[in-house]
Fold:
Amino acid sequence: MLPVAAVLLLLCLFSCQRDQADIVYTNAQIYTLDDAHPIAGSLAIKGDRFIFVGHPDEAMELAGNHTEIIDLGGLTVIPGLTESHMHFEGLGRNLLMAPLDIYWLPLDELLIKIAEAVDHAEEGEWIIARGYNDAIWDETPHRHLLDAVSPDNPVVLRRYCGHAHFVNSMALEVAGVTGETADPDAGTIVRDDEGRPTGVLVSAAGVLVTRHVPAAPGLTEEEELEALRLGSDALLAAGITTVHDLTASGMGDISLRSKAYESGFLRVRLMDAVDEGTARDMGRPLIGLYDDRYTVRWVKEYVDGSLGGRGAALLEPYDDTPGETGALRALGQKEDRYAQLVADLLEIGFTMRTHSIGDRGNRVTLNAFEKAMDMTGKSPEEARLVVEHAQIIHPDDLERFAGRNVIASMQPVHATEDMLFVEDRIGRERAVAGAYAWRSILDQGGIIAAGSDYWVSPYNPFYGLHAAVTRQDRDNNPPGGWIPEQRMTRHEALKAYTLWPAYLEFSEDLKGNIVPGKLADFVVIDRDYFRIPEVEIHQVEVVRTVLGGKTVYERQE
Structure:
């Protein structure tokens, strides 16, 4: 039997080893987003968790012979950022395949790109691209513009918002779309004064042409895995440690992503949405797989289209298209059935996230959400239902976000991109009353989860933080910001990329701020987010990204 002194020594050694940090980061300006201790100079990590956040002297007390000490040289640390709405698969595929890039090109440059693509294509081969924005053009889009550079190749361009297409005459001919073709449900064939198609197809009308596009060659499983790796690494390099993928995945996607985690291709934390059928087939969500890196618990649906493409469902007509109010998709046309679907999903553990942009579309979604909670008896905290985009809200509906009754998932860069046309679409009065109404939602006690909606907009989170704080584009226009009374504070904007999306995903006890016991996800940046001029926020660069205590990106000097 060991002497008492020896037992005590062993216990002490065991205790010291147990409390010893794996890594201590020191000499930093750490913004914790912990109200009790908002600023710290050092943090310590053991395993994948923070075990200490505070003064450097106290942190060093946790250092032992095997502890790594990293001096950050006075740099700024913020919590790991969350991209609350993007199309993740598109990012990886884009990086892998480098498709034709026409994102926000002036019309003359876009036509040059199309002409160059035609020169390298076979006669009759389809020319496909995404990213045009007619709001920055001096001319109204018309098929004749595309015909001039591509008379013999069908051209299909998807608007950057994803809810309108611009095609040439050859594409219309192949699809059999003429002046006699009726508008499809929830879609519009834009026509000229003589009733002929102009080549612009809004919302569901795009399918009239896109269903004739030959399927692209499928990627091999190895290529799919590589695309996931490329997308994951790109997000980590941007300071994004959690991503919400709002493309509805199927069982095959879930299987592939599981394999990607098991083989090390995927490292970013991925929160996945599925379609209704997949949710019912699953029967229950998948939560916290692969060391809290993969969760599948949302169903993604659409209730209307985009504002730029005039597909958003409005309560009153568009100012620039008299009589046109957009269109509700099938989901929104029968509100009680919509509510029943949400209720059914809640009962098996899935939360709905619905694309709703116009004030009519948002009202229908809010009505359905409230009815579903009444039907199931679930509280807002239990349900955590999410309106995606929430771009135009009628003033009477703003209070329905109060107290986190419903969560608004919004994209700050959309406001500073869409300000080019919003007042043309709905007029100044409606825009001021409820367009991208961040301040109004926050003042009601609601919360906002921020993202980019990539492919629609760049996924750089500092672009979004800048837009949220300034209501300006990245040239810092207009002076003072567009509808500046709706700006967020810097603190609120950072919460919209950290703590509030963590609440949305039921992860507020796991991550979102730098607190002992939570996952050690954080970002080291090259300047002080809270002290630099607000007009410089979009210039912030990531120096290091740490996920679960491990450095997953480090900038090369």
